[in-house]
Amino acid sequence: MEKVFPAVNRSGVLGDLGVIDAQGNHLTYVGPYRRQLAGKNYRDAAWFLETMRSGRYVSDVFTGYRDEPHFVVAVTDAGRTWVLRATINSALFNALLAGVEVGPDGDAYIINQKGELQTVSRDVAHASQAGGTAKSAILAPDELADLAAEAVTTVHEHKNFLYVATWVNDKGWLLILKTNIKSSLAPFYRAWNLGLLSIVVASVFILVVTTLLVRSMMDRIELADKQRMILNNRVREVDKMALIGRLAASVAHEVNNPLQIIGDQAGWITELLEEEDQQCLKNYDEYKGSVQKIRQHVSRASTITHRLLGFSRSREFKRVAQDINNLLTDTVSFLENEAKHHRISLRLNLQENLPKAMTDPSQLQQVFLNIVNNAIDAIGNDGAITIQTRADGERLLVEFADSGPGLPAEHLQKIFDPFFTTKKADKGTGLGLSISKNIMQRLSGDIQAENGKQGGCLFTVSLPLSQAMHS
User: Fold this and answer.
1) Positive or negative: CA dihedral 280, 283, 286, 290
2) For residue 319, which of 202, 468, 176 has the smallest C-alpha distance?
3) How do beta strands 107-112 and 173-180 pair?
4) How far apart are CA 335 and CA 465, in angstroms?
């Protein structure tokens, strides 16, 4: 017993523990009252007789030797040969009931069948502190009887209080919970008022948000309509440019025929002059020089018309091994006069013995023209455009660096988007770089834009090198 008692009483609930034989003799005892209880006989005690009869016994709360509230629990074995008796400290029940949430004016307690308190009552404690009389029966006897006579668990309303009662300990004790209706419903009313306020605030918020959203949608629709009109205007500009391109090709074709005739006739005049007696012709040298100038300018005009025809005719992608340096030189010649007019120098830093690239010359020429043209527009007047070529592994790079003002970061992210342009409405359609990006992707190449370290913009065009050059 000395070893068992500390093991089972770690929580401190047990006051003592004793074993009694069938004749009521106290055989062994562990607790603070060994001297008073050792050898005591309980054969005539009511609790002992009830234990031997029913097999167990639970007493009401009393003070006894300890002078503090406690109750006794006793059990026996199936053969009724011994009884195990323990004293339980009622402080455990008081602590459990003290933690029950019953509201500020509520109470929780246990009474026996006589209506006597078995645990501490908050109402009784408050009455004692206020100098009043502590009554064991909180309810009137008839009300308590009605409450106790109900089913296992019942709810009873009395004087703005709700009482919930249930039997415990085989109907030996009655557990009663009491709560103030008004105090208990106070959080509900607060929640109700808060809910109403929330509904009003939410309604106002929804109304404001709806108004703002509708206004925002109307602004977006208006903006979309303006953008649609701008796009329509740009599409018309694109159609007009396409028409001008076709017209230019047609004019170049028509001009090319008379130029060929003029060139042939100039050649015939040269042959006739060779057959004439030079001493008889007073202005022979001037005739010969004039014919030479005619043939020179016819050749120059023919070159221009052939370039226009070559640029306008090729629309399907036909990749061939192309010398990019020659293509750049040819392309720059288109814009030399435009650049000189704006006092812009075109500088070519072309790598010697540059490998050929697999590409479509006319489509790539369109990309180069778009980039150089944009660079001239960005510089305005007095500047330079540097074009550099170099081989990098399996790729060929063409870099276009201008001395313009450069572009903000947000514009660099959208520069290849269709219809995006930083030019005035009558200066550009916003399709040049978008088309160039698409052409480079179809040519298995790429085009990138960034701001140069020394200022201005840097466009880099990358192309696959000719496979024949590496086989």
Assistant:
1) negative
2) 468
3) antiparallel
4) 27
With beta carbons less than 8 A apart as the criterion, state whether 436 and 370 touch: yes
In angstroms, the Cα distances linking 75 to 6, 13, 48, 350 are: 19, 17, 9, 110
Q: CB neighbours of 172 closer than 8 A, spacing ≥ 6? A: 58, 60, 112, 113
φ, ψ for residue 317, nearest 5 deg: -80, 115
Structure tokens belonging to residue 421: 């342009």
| 71-110 per-position pLDDT tens digit | 889 999 988 999 999 888 777 767 777 777 777 777 888 8
- For the chain, the residue count is 471
Look up residue 341 and give its two tokens.
């007019």
HEC profile of 231-293: HHHHHHHHHHHHHHHHHHHHHHHHHHHHHHHHHHHHHHHHHHHHHCCCCCCCCHHHHHHHHHH
CB 134 within 8 A of CB 127: yes
Q: Quote the CA–CA distance of 287 and 274 in Å, as a whole number.
A: 11
Q: Please give the residue that has the higher pLDDT: either 91 or 152.
A: 91
**Residue 385 near residue 457 (C-beta atoms within 8 A):** no
* C-alpha 408, offset from chain centre: 27
